[in-house]
Specification:
The complex is a heterodimer of chains A (419) and B (425). Chain A is mainly β and 419 residues long. Chain A contains one helix and 34 strands. In chain A, strand 33 and strand 34 form a beta hairpin. The radius of gyration of chain A is 20 Å and the shape is globular. With 425 residues, chain B is α+β, with helices and mostly antiparallel strands. In chain B, the strands form three sheets. In chain B, strands 1, 4, 6, 8, 9, 11, 13 and 14 form an eight-stranded antiparallel sheet that branches. In chain B, helix 10 runs antiparallel to helix 11. Classes of the chains: A mainly beta (419), B alpha+beta (425). Chains A and B meet through strand 7 and strand 11 of A and helix 4, helix 6 and helix 10 of B.
Chain lengths: 419, 425
């Protein structure tokens, strides 16, 4: 537990879905960590990359001036998502004419106060497609700290108070690392290990690092090809395994050793995440395809395929028995998760880079211009609850925590919802 | 935090230096900080440093590959931050451009120290900070950080500092200085002053600023030579195409890699005889389109060769832009390679630091093409430039070229008068 000093803040207590002001403390030093209730959003697309939160209630309507709990101007661009652990919101950004100035920021989740800001200068190449930047990987965090990887290969771990626990320059460790389109696969945490996906045209690997000092616990060779898929963790009776897809198929790695347990080479994809559901997996191939998943991997042919479920940069979402996709061509599509039958396919304005997220019976789809379509997830039809605009470029997937959406645009971090 | 010995010394030195800086400013002309004052700068000399701070800095400088030394470095980081203000300038002075990993450890510690100071309502010693910015013996990146902290605390410092930074080794400071001067010209109604614009053009290093200034000079009736400014090789000899079966050309060793001056002829792709040929480009950015020059080939390699004449040993950077895999050689020595195909044509994507010897130097670039069939994967081109560490021209460099079987020298970057249009702003 970390000691914190509180000079003036609201301590909140949540009960029956309501957040109540409980106490104002002024000028007091506090010897206890005051854990916030509610679910964290500790990595890209939240708990195990699902994109689903148990938080409720969640906001329906907002604008740049309405229903915004707080907002913070950012020191740089980013396509990385905010993450939320306890009372901290963590975010990365990059800036400078060469994009080589790297930022890791920690905000007070309640008030938006910048708690600390750590900067690095990129040690690896910073060339990339103009749509992305060096702040493309979403960080991962737990109660012990936050871990941030940049597309230049710079990787750091900070304690919640901002002290640097360790730092690595992967471009110095492995000098052939290269992806001039720009890397983006995000970090995940599992069993005291930081899982680092580093698929690229040079020394390509998936590694597990000791979260205490950043040293390699294992490093598994990967195909020398560019790839942006974030790994997901699958519980397994013989110990958890990491599923990582790429241009050569889907591979399962033993979390303990990094050994490949099984592979499925028939499904190659390089951006969206697979979705796990008990004994099934949904893969973003041929639209979306559902496969049966046993202890030794994917079994047989797909249970169903639906080509209308188009993704692109964003990942599909599994929520309340339906699969949702928001495509780079501007379609929001839903299908029944059991049968694959299309429920609706609606063209809306703008392309989607951010993945849809869900909670409290709602699906949130942010397009690239900052317009969010809030869908009613209690029905099989396309029911729009609201269309809200932040009027800023929005490429990053939002986070859900504290009964709020945390949304990063190209200029601003917004906490949307309850003040 | 109580004032301790080193802090008191720092503050006293800072006050004294502040006076010196004020006096020194009277002697500042055209971006050069007086050498005599810089020599007196205590930020670079013998201010006593707490032993624990020294030890902590040394620890950060010893972090090795793959996280070796990270655990000890974390402790050292805590020591530095706990020392606070007393560790600030020692940490700043310890930053070195050739130790980028240690520099990042130090940067984050400096961030934490500054945050602590700000939280405590204290201001960093501004005079000392200003002296550090002007001390060009310090690492350029550390001087830029110091500038930012200085201006954050004292915005008016910008007006004192930036006019001194037009020729700064820090690209960030140089960029800010050029923007500042451009803004000053605008506000004084001299935005079309050709002489002023040409002066700024000489200092510019970032391509967007170079292009913008070139355009404004053109509008003012002048002509800025972007090609020479960047030091592009406008004349190259080429040899190819060589066969690269299975797109393995990057890994295969071809005769020019061992003997860059061997005249040939050689057996190239499809057993055809190939030999060195000359080419020149009129492109503003030194582009050689190999599909036009050599022909459209897949699974192929071509070598591009330039002879650079330097009057003395000259540190430089060989910068290559290409959408396909390249290797860079100097005088038969491999310097740099990157096996990546069709992921963009990023300016200066490949940089090889080198030192040219006095006399003639053979720069050899191997440019590979793979077998991708997509329409967006057909480009085969290269741009080569030789510049200083800031990306700026090295005026003394000459290129030895062959024209009509005669050898002659031209200034690096010189080209024919046929001009491609200026880029859109």
């Amino acid at each position: 537990m970390t000691q914190i000093s509180v000079t003036s803040r609201w301590i909140v207590w949540r009960s029956s879905g309501m957040l109540l002001p409980l106490l104002i403390l002024s000028g007091l030093s506090f010897g206890l960590l005051l854990p916030l209730q509610g679910a964290d959003w500790p990595q890209f697309r939240g708990p195990n990359g699902s994109g689903v939160s148990t938080e409720a209630p969640l906001p329906v309507e907002w604008s740049r001036t309405h229903n915004i709990a707080w907002q913070a101007s950012l020191p740089g661009r980013g396509v990385s998502s905010p993450i939320v652990v306890g009372d901290r919101v963590y975010l990365t950004a990059s800036s400078g004419p060469r994009g080589d100035r790297l930022h890791l920021l920690a905000y007070d989740a309640h008030r938006g106060t910048l708690l600390w800001h750590r900067q690095l200068q990129a040690t690896g190449p910073t060339h990339c497609h103009p749509k992305t930047c060096m702040a493309a990987h979403t960080p991962a965090a737990d109660a012990q700290g936050v871990y941030a990887l940049f597309a230049s290969g710079d990787l750091l771990a900070c304690n919640p108070d901002g002290s640097l626990r360790w730092y690595r320059s992967l471009a110095s460790d492995y000098p052939t690392i290269s992806n001039q389109v720009g890397m983006a696969a995000s970090l995940i945490l599992i069993e005291g290990k930081l899982i680092v996906p580093m698929d690229n045209v040079g020394e390509s690997f998936l590694a597990a690092l000791d979260i205490r000092d950043g040293r390699n616990l294992w490093k598994a060779e990967r195909p020398r090809e560019i790839n942006w898929v974030t790994p997901v963790v699958r519980p397994h009776t013989e110990g958890a395994e990491i599923l990582l897809a790429g241009p050569r198929g889907l591979y399962a790695y033993d979390v303990a050793t990094g050994q490949v347990r099984w592979s499925f080479k028939e499904a190659a994809f390089t951006v969206p995440l697979p979705l796990l559901e008990d004994e099934a997996v949904y893969l973003p191939v041929q639209g979306v395809s559902k496969f049966s998943l046993g202890p030794d991997g994917i079994r047989g042919k797909p249970l169903w395929q639906n080509r209308s479920l188009q993704t692109g940069y964003s990942s599909p979402l599994l929520y309340r028995g339906r699969i949702y996709t928001a495509s780079s061509t501007g379609f929001i599509t839903a299908a029944d998760a059991t049968s694959g039958k299309e429920l609706f396919r609606e063209r809306v304005k703008g392309a989607f880079s951010a993945s849809p997220v869900a909670g409290d019976g709602k699906v949130y789809c942010f397009n690239e211009t900052g317009t969010c379509y809030v869908l009613d997830a209690r029905t099989d039809t396309f029911e729009l609850l609201a269309t809200n605009s932040l009027e800023e470029e929005t490429l990053a997937t939002p986070a859900i925590a504290h009964q709020r959406l945390y949304v990063r645009t190209d200029k601003t971090l917004y906490a949307i919802g309850l003040k | 935090m109580p004032m301790n010995g080193p802090l008191a010394i720092c503050l006293s030195a800072g006050m004294a230096l502040g006076l010196a800086v004020v006096i020194g400013r009277k002697f500042v002309e055209q971006g050069a900080y007086p050498a005599a004052l810089a020599q007196q700068n205590p930020t670079a000399s013998s201010v006593p440093v707490d032993r624990s701070v020294e030890t902590a800095i040394a620890q950060l400088q010893q972090v090795g590959r793959e996280g070796q030394g990270n655990a000890a470095a974390a402790q050292a980081w805590q020591t530095l931050v706990a020392a606070g203000r007393a560790a600030f300038f020692p940490a700043l002075r310890a930053v070195r451009e050739d130790q980028p990993i240690a520099a990042n450890w130090l940067r984050t510690a400096l961030d934490a120290i500054v945050e602590k100071e700000q939280a405590a309502g204290r201001t960093l010693p501004l005079a000392e900070l200003e002296a550090f910015v002007t001390d060009r013996r310090q690492a350029p990146r550390a001087r830029f950080w110091a500038y930012e902290w200085l201006v954050q605390a004292q915005p008016s410092a910008r007006d004192r500092m930036l006019p001194l930074c037009l020729d700064d080794p820090s690209l960030e400071l140089r960029r800010l200085a050029i923007a500042y001067e451009l803004d000053r010209l605008e506000r004084s109604g001299r935005a079309d002053s050709r002489a002023e614009l040409e002066r700024l053009f000489g200092f510019a290093r970032d391509r967007d600023q170079v292009d913008a200034l070139a355009q404004r000079i053109s509008q003012a009736g002048g002509q800025a030579d972007v090609t020479r400014h960047f030091g592009f090789c406008t004349h190259l000899e080429w040899l190819g195409p060589w066969d690269a079966p299975g797109s393995q050309g990057y890994s295969l060793a071809y005769p020019p890699e061992k003997e860059p001056l061997a005249a040939g002829p050689f057996r190239g792709k499809d057993q055809r005889e190939i030999q060195w040929q000359t080419a020149e480009t009129t492109d503003r950015y030194g582009l050689f389109d190999l599909n036009k020059l050599v022909g459209k080939h897949k699974d192929a390699v071509v070598f591009m060769r330039a002879v650079l004449r330097a009057p003395q040993p000259t540190p430089c950077q060989i910068r290559v832009t290409s959408p396909t895999a390249v290797k860079i050689f100097l005088n038969g020595e491999f310097l740099f390679g990157r096996e990546e195909y069709h992921h963009g044509t990023n300016f200066d994507a490949h940089i090889a630091p080198a030192t040219l010897r006095a006399g003639d130097n053979i720069v050899l670039i191997k440019v590979c093409q793979n077998n991708q069939q997509e329409s967006w994967a057909q480009a085969w081109q290269v741009q080569v430039r030789i510049c200083d560490a800031t990306g700026g021209p090295i005026p003394a460099l000459q290129q030895v070229i062959r024209q009509q079987n005669q050898m002659r020298t031209i200034p690096l970057g010189a080209r024919c008068e046929k001009d491609s249009p200026l880029p859109e702003k």
